[in-house]
Amino acid sequence: MIDRTVAHPMVKLQNKVHSLVKSGVLQPSDGIWKIAFLYGESWAFWKQELEDFGFAMQDPIRELVLVEAWEEEE
User: Fold this and answer.
1) Is the pLDDT of residue 45 over 60?
2) How would residue 55 be classed by pLDDT, with cut points 50, 70 and 90?
3) What angle do CA 70, 73, 74 make, to 5 degrees?
4) Distance, first Cα to last Cα, the chain
5) Which secondary-structure segment (H or E) carries 19?
């Protein structure tokens, strides 16, 4: 049997944002709201996800990149 672990959607967002920080497109001190420019129509979904995890749009991107584990409360 193959164990396939599906990455949490927030991990995918985090990896993309981290890549953009490494490439210099975004700065660690930039507000999370700047991600909206990259996601266009799907931003409403991501904004809600971020808020559900306790982020404010003014929080610096570094806070998003530093999360070690994404766990849903049940």
Assistant:
1) yes
2) very high
3) 135
4) 28
5) helix 9-22
**Which pTM does this prediction carry?**
0.81
Give residue 7's identity as a one-letter amino acid code. Answer: A
Question: What phi-psi label fits residue 69: left (phi over 0), alpha (psi between -120 and 50 degrees) or beta?
Answer: beta
Mind spelling out the 3-state secondary structure of 32-57? HHHHHHHHHHHHHHHHHHHHHCCCCC
Give the C-alpha distances (Å, rounded to integers) separating 21 from 1, 15, 50, 58, 62: 37, 10, 18, 17, 9
What DSSP designation does 65 have? H
